[in-house]
Model the fold of this input.
Amino acid sequence: ELGVDCLWLSPMYPSPLRDDGYDISDYYNIHPDYGTLDDFKKLIAEAKKRDIRIITDLVMNHTSDLHPWFQEARKSKDSPKRDWYVWSDTDDLYTETRIIFLDTEPSNWTYDEVAGQYFWHRFYRTQPDLNWDNPEVIEEFKNIARFWLDLGLDGFRADAVPYLIERDHTSNENLPETHEILKDFRAFMDEEFPGTILLGEANMWPWDLRPYFADGDEFQMCFHFPVMPRLFMAVKKGEVSDVIDIMERTPDIPANCQWCTFLRNHDELTLEMVTEEERQWMWEQYAPEDRMRLNLGIRRRMAPLLDNDRRKLELLNVVLFSLPGSPILYYGDEIGMGDNIWLFDRNGVRTPMQWKNAPNAGFSEAEETYAPAIDDDAFGYARVNVENALADEHSLWYWTKHLIAMRKEHPALSRGSYEFVQTDNPAVLAILRKCENETILALANFSNKAQVARVALPEYAAHEKVELFSQIPHGCKDETHRTLLEPYEYQWLLMRD
Ligand code: NOJ
Done:
């Protein structure tokens, strides 16, 4: 009903859940807590009836240490699975590789008593990295993909792809050999399952992300990680230059590719793609308590980050929908769910969906859920829930539904070209989206004060303009589009010929 047309499911496979399912112990099944394969088939069928596609996470870089492959591999050097993982007699190989889970892992190597060797892992020590130099691993993953795509899945969000291949004296990230493997995987999907999609998760700078699109023959989509923290920076500073700067340093991508943009997801709000100084500033601003910080990020949800201020929530969502790319929403953010910083790791942003004011927030009839539903005064399920949101026509949920519908109605916002237009006001972002039949000027005031902005667009001076949210004509006929914007106000101006 919200208008979402694709679901991305985080890992639903059997797993000991040491990394909430990103540690898979069987790639060909569903975790029994979530249901059965038949339930999953039913989910796909029901989604298709509603024109909703489904992609799932495909964790390629590593498995759980409890996966039978690893159990087999550690047994002996002669084990047929030994070479499926990355081993060493010492832990002084690949010293130029950074550690990602800084808060918990002192090294990317862990000694395994049973194996008598160290194994390589870029994430938790319970997630040994697979050896993608081994053709058997490549073949196995094609079989895994066949299994799920045969069921009618529409594609994968490929997890942690920069780290597939290791080479000494490199950072072990984004290596050419890794790109070769991904291209081959894409070619296989195109050939056997045309129309399915590969979305790459590579938390990298735009220029390092660009090769993942290759000539339109690697990933169709990649997350745009670096723009996300800059949107939060901009709203706190009341100043938009960081957003413009990173987008202007984002290379063009092939016509058959697209960015995926987002404000929040199931992980910490990552601050990997900012400078050390900016990271400190973001932590001070958004994570004043130690418990709010995790690794290089902030483990909080969107609504609490934005002071539960409806103006800021709308502003950042409108900007997300005005930037190039397919916007991704994180479950619960459409009703303004909160977080629980007292839970382990990133679980505080993964609490049960708040459907109604009922036990477990209506999420489950089980006695106990994997994490308790949020029940604090401001964000608790008694107040913040879908049932209440649907009963209130002014709710964030209805507003989000409207936003999604408008984006679908106006192809300039989804498929159009984009350019940042200069304004005379550093607090105001102006993005021009254009396609064959329409032009839309998005204006957004990131300041907590009213602002006047002039936007130099002489070619549109004579056009009639209508603001799409309010449907009110924009009176100004001069060449500078002088506009008054209230604190955090945004506009979508449709230029009529
Ligand atoms: C990225 C996922 O988003 C994150 O949740 C996970 O911990 C790592 N990859 C490792 O799989």
Summary: Residues 18 and 126 are 7 Å apart (CA to CA). Residues 19, 22, 59, 123, 159-160, 201, 266-267 surround 1-deoxynojirimycin (CB under 6 Å). The mean pLDDT is 97. DSSP finds 13 helices and 21 strands in the chain.
